[in-house]
Amino acid sequence: MDDNRFVKLERIISEFSLEVLHGGEDYQNIKVYVDSVDRPGLQLVGYFEHFDTHRIQLIGKMEYGYLANLSRQERLERFDKLLSYPIPALIYARGLEPYPECMEMAAKHNQTILRTQESTGDFMSTLTATLKNFLSPHITRHGVLVEVYGEGVLLIGESGVGKSENAVELIKRGHRLIADDAVDITRTSAHSLRGTAPELIRYYMELRGIGVIDVRQLFGMSAVKDFARIDMIINIEQWKDGVNYDRIGLDDQFTTILDVQVPIVTVPVKPGRNLAIIIEVAALNNRQKKMGYNAAEEFTRQINAHFEAEQAQW
Fold first, then answer.
1. Is 108 a catalytic residue?
2. For the whole model, what pTM was predicted?
3. What is the DSSP code string of 184-217?
4. Cα separation of 145 and 40, whole Å?
5. Candidates 142, 208, 270, 290; catalytic one
6. Is 247 a catalytic residue?
7. DSSP secondary structure string, 71-137?
8. Which residues pair with residue 204 across a beta bridge?
9. Which of 55, 163, 176, 225 is catalytic?
10. Phi, psi at residue 256, to the nearest 5°?
11. Is 173 a catalytic site residue?
């Protein structure tokens, strides 16, 4: 558990329109650190080994039915034990009416009791996904994120190299802007990253000599998108004479962001190069590789087959 990543209970309550049946002291500011939710079935029968007190607890129809078969004294004892632990909150699903014994023990231990009208399974899966989104590792990187032919392309390079200008050209060609200048990157799984713009600068772009423009207002809603998966990175740099730039693309290059490997290519800039078209081709080529076809490998195979055939004639 990373103590630096948390979401306040107030945000979860607002996100899901949860009904507050009993609020513990300063419950809005309770910090949730864990991106999973528990149903306290074992705890209600008295088993508390390995009980993770950082997880939100959810009571559904099964737990509710079990408790209905207990006496009032037994329910008091079970809730007394469960709510004595510092859990973030206990949520009732399906609009279930909390047992009076639960509310008594919530008051005794200063615990928060919430309720949703959603079914247990649907709410649990949605809440877990939301918590994962809130608590996933994230980082902010300088660059421009665009979606080109469905591929999320992160353009990086030194300031003034032309990232934003090329993004405008791509927008005019029908592609979409996600973020300019600063890109918030979140790891959504072990193998994927998602990028978005900080809220303050979303849809805005800075063009040297012109200033700040609102891409959504200038080009329309179809020119922007709130987030996109980062499928590849293009490093734009000034052309340097004497540098041996890759001409075949046989050896794939990768960089690591938040422990996720992302393909990266370096594209040199010099007068006469249409960089927007090159970015389009790079995105299509990356998409083709993911679908199992590598043009560089096929080209190399054909060249080798040609030379082998030539040698066989000798």
1. no
2. 0.75
3. EEEEEETTEEEEE--GGGTTEEEETTTEEEEHHH
4. 43
5. 142
6. yes
7. -HHHHHHHHHHHTTS--S-EEE-TTPPPPHHHHHHHHHHT--EEE-SS-HHHHHHHHHHHHHHHHS-
8. 214
9. 163
10. -110, 125
11. no
In the three-class reduction of DSSP (H, G, I as helix; E, B as strand; rest coil), residue 16 is classed as helix
Q: pLDDT tens for residues 80-109?
A: 999 999 999 999 999 999 999 999 999 999
Whether the per-residue pLDDT at 2 is higher than 60: the answer is: no
- Convert the pLDDT of each residue in 284-306 to its tens digit: 999 999 999 888 888 888 888 88
Closest CA to 56 of 19, 92, 108, 100: 92
**CB-based contact 5:135 (threshold 8 Å):** yes
**Which listed residue (8, 54, 181, 252) is catalytic?**
181
Nearest Cα neighbor of 157 from 312, 279, 292 is 279
Q: Catalytic annotation on 181?
A: yes
Choose among 96, 116, 105: nearest CA to 56.
Answer: 116
**DSSP class per residue in 232-269:** EEEEEEE--TT----SS--S--EEEETTEEEEEEEEEE
